[in-house]
Design goal:
The structure is a single chain. The protein has 118 residues and is an alpha+beta fold. The chain has one domain. Strands 4-3-2-1-5 form a five-stranded antiparallel beta sheet. The longest helix is centred in the N-terminal third of the chain and has 15 residues. The model has no long low-confidence stretch (mean pLDDT 93). It holds the Pfam family DUF2958. This is DUF2958 domain-containing protein. It comes from Methylorubrum extorquens (strain ATCC 14718 / DSM 1338 / JCM 2805 / NCIMB 9133 / AM1). Keywords: Plasmid.
Length: 118
């Protein structure tokens, strides 16, 4: 499976370009996860000058999710014990901005789903 669709890549790059011009709090564009471990990534942007470099909420399943940068090439290499590759959540639709996911993740000590924001 492809980690990102063309549409997601375009949205992530657009967020990255906007972020370079100032602080933004976009909704996550894509959710990646390990089907055989507890790692999850909610990505909001790609660096337009280095599209392998993504920003988002990263949770390696250790109880301390954090905002930061990660390389897509490194995510592609992550495997759990059965050695299954990282997958894209095909049904993920963000319910709020990244800051809301980060706050909920800090409280829960893992990335959790949000209730839809009205």
């Amino acid at each position: 499976m492809q980690l990102l669709t063309k549409e997601q890549t375009a949205a992530l790059l657009a967020n990255g370009a906007q972020s370079a011009n100032g602080d933004i709090d976009p909704y996550p564009v894509v959710k990646l996860f390990t089907p055989d471990a507890q790692a999850t990534w909610l990505l909001t942007e790609l660096d337009p000058t280095d599209p392998d470099l993504a920003f988002g909420l990263c949770d390696l399943g250790l109880g301390c999710p954090e905002l930061g940068y990660v390389r897509l090439s490194e995510i592609r290499e992550v495997r759990g014990r059965p050695r299954l590759p990282v997958e894209r959540d095909l049904w993920f639709t963000a319910a709020g901005p990244l800051s809301a996911y980060a706050a909920a993740a800090r409280r829960a000590e893992r990335i959790v789903e949000l209730e839809a924001v009205a």
